[in-house]
Design goal:
transmembrane helix, 2 domains, transmembrane, membrane, alpha+beta, 13343_t:CDS:1, two-stranded antiparallel ribbon
Length: 193
């Protein structure tokens, strides 16, 4: 069964390949994945907000930089569907992105909230420019990983002490009775914890 998809009108002079590129899944929360199978029973009107949310999702999923929305070539591509008005850069990068992030965080919190036997995973990278990036993930029993936090801890000179407090915050937020293990690739710092 395929989810609902909105496509460009069939009577337009746009090729099937272009239609596939513009097929984005629209449920109320924009949480499905794209497909290239068009929905032939298209609604007569699509609200401006849904169009803006769809473009935002496409930018996020495809890893497109938000400033591209102001590029004249991209604007011309959008004009293939002359009734569409592209959102401003600020709308994409601030308001709509924040809404999407909030929905994802809420969904992840619900999944973690109902799961048991969780594993907290820590991973770190140090870059030549001095950045000290730490990634925290929550792994549920079905081995699905959920991003919890990604931060630069360059300013933390006592990393073991800092990690102890960070792990305590995560454990307290999730609930110590739900966590079965804490794993990391950085043995020296974790041993000090």
């Amino acid at each position: 069964m395929h989810p609902k998809v909105i496509v460009i009108r069939k009577e337009s002079n746009i090729s099937e390949e272009w239609q596939c590129h513009f097929n984005y899944i629209l449920d109320n929360h924009l949480e499905d994945t794209p497909t290239d199978e068009p929905l032939y029973s298209m609604p007569n009107t699509i609200s401006s907000l849904i169009k803006k949310k769809t473009i935002t999702l496409a930018f996020i999923i495809c890893g497109i930089a938000f400033h591209i929305i102001n590029n004249p070539f991209f604007i011309n591509a959008l004009k293939l569907n002359s009734s569409y008005e592209a959102p401003l850069y600020e709308v994409l990068s601030e308001h709509l992105l924040n809404i999407k992030i909030a929905k994802v965080i809420n969904k992840v919190n619900k999944i973690i909230g109902s799961a048991t036997n969780l594993t907290v995973g820590l991973n770190s990278w140090t870059f030549s420019n001095g950045l000290s990036i730490w990634n925290f993930v929550i792994i549920i029993l079905s081995q699905e990983e959920y991003f919890y936090e990604l931060s630069n801890y360059l300013d933390q000179s006592h990393i073991a002490k800092f990690l102890t407090s960070k792990i305590e915050l995560i454990v307290n937020h999730i609930g110590s009775n739900k966590i079965s293990a804490i794993i990391s690739d950085n043995g020296a710092n974790i041993a000090a914890v």
